């Protein structure tokens, strides 16, 4: 995905179908059920994402290669985190006003398609995890998979 082909990609019927697969987050869709599931997960140790999938019929999107038409299968054991709270400004004109958060090639490449509103809470969590790992395990570095997608 490049800046030159964003319009072509977002205007395609396949992309429109893809975008319709996404929903708002569980806390927005049904706040009381979300709180119940979080409490159940805490109490029983059940996987919260599996509870959400079972009770709310929402599947956390799996991750995938950041290359368009890459032949490797999707990565079902991980998902992408939302580095920005919004989408790349040039993309907004191709989306409906009520478009739920979604995953596409441009949304996972924050280094090339940054939003305007950083998800600072997540960025701070990244930093906390790194500091904890360095202090607790006396390591001198970390490995970040597809780190090239993180904004500088």
Secondary structure elements and their pairing?
Blueprint (H helix, E strand, L loop, with lengths): L5 H6 L1 H7 L6 H4 L1 H14 L3 H9 L63 H18 L15
Protein name: Alpha-amylase
Organism: Clostridium perfringens
Terminus-to-terminus distance: 19 Å
Report the sheet-strand fraction. under 5%
Radius of gyration: 17 Å
Shape: globular
The averaged pLDDT comes out at 90
- List segments where confidence is low: pLDDT < 50 over at least 5 consecutive residues: none
Helical amount: 25-40%
How many strands, what sense, and barrel or not for the largest sheet?
none
- H/E topology pattern: HHHHHH
Any overview of this molecule?
The chain has a domain at 61-149. The model has no long low-confidence stretch (mean pLDDT 90). Helix 4 crosses helix 5 (48-56). 8% of the residues are buried. The chain contains six helices and no strands. The two termini are 19 Å apart. It has helices at 6-11, 13-19, 26-29, 31-44, 48-56, 120-137. It is globular. It is mainly α and 152 residues long.
